[in-house]
Amino acid sequence: MTTAVSDANRRKRTAILSQVTRVAALVIAVALPLAGLTYWGFAPAETLAGAALIPSVWLAEFGPGQRLLATALAVLPVLPLSWGLVRLASALEAFRQGRAFGLVAATGMRDFAVGVFGCTLLKLASGALLSVVLSWNAPAGQKQVAISVSSDMLLMLLVGAVLTLFAWALAEAAAIAEENAQFV
User: Most buried of the four, 31, 164, 167, 181, by CB within 10 Å?
Assistant: First the structure.
């Protein structure tokens, strides 16, 4: 009897955490691009200059075209991550329903890993291009191309790799479960 109760508690605990995490993933998937659009689209040029550690005079003539390009470059890396978070939500729904070793869980987890990789790689490229856009109006000889690799980016690549391995294991488990179901 104790085993049945602990199995029920385990399933309930998994369902609750999966649902809470699923909702958080969907909220973050929407909030990240909106926050980026709002910040880069509407923050005063002086604020952007301070965040980018460049002289505010470089953005004194920060026109609509330059702002639009900077906004697009800043939001671009977030888009694959948002897509990945939406796909993660499908995996978490499968977890909630007790189908952790199904194909839906495996593909959702794999797609989340792809989103994490995509975000990290695009962050590297868009950050360099963003530095060019922000230094566009700098005096001659002071324009910049800045390439940044942070510990956060390296950690994201590691997390993406681990999630990919986990997704492959889930896909293999789903194939084994399907094969076993054919024998019954």
Answer: 167
Listed as own residue / partner, the contacts of 13-21 with beta carbons closer than 8 Å and 24 or more positions apart are 14/95, 14/96, 14/98, 14/100, 15/95, 15/96, 15/97, 15/98, 18/92, 18/93, 18/95, 18/96, 19/92, 19/96, 21/92
Asked whether 80 and 145 are in contact (CB, 8 A), the reply is no
Chain mean position to CA 167: 16
Kindly report, residue by residue over 54-71, the tens digit of the pLDDT.
888 888 888 899 999 999
How many C-beta atoms surround the C-beta of residue 170 within 10 A? 23
Residue 39 has which token pair? 């910040």
Please say if the pLDDT value at position 118 is more than 50. yes
Which residues in 53-157 belong to E strands, given as ranges? none
The confidence score (pLDDT) of residue 123 equals 94
Write down the pTM of the prediction: 0.86
Which tokens hold the place of 9?
Answer: 């508690």
Q: From its phi and psi, is residue 98 left (phi > 0), alpha (psi between -120 and 50) or beta?
A: left
**Using one digit for the tens of pLDDT, what is the confidence trace for 32-47?**
999 999 999 999 888 8
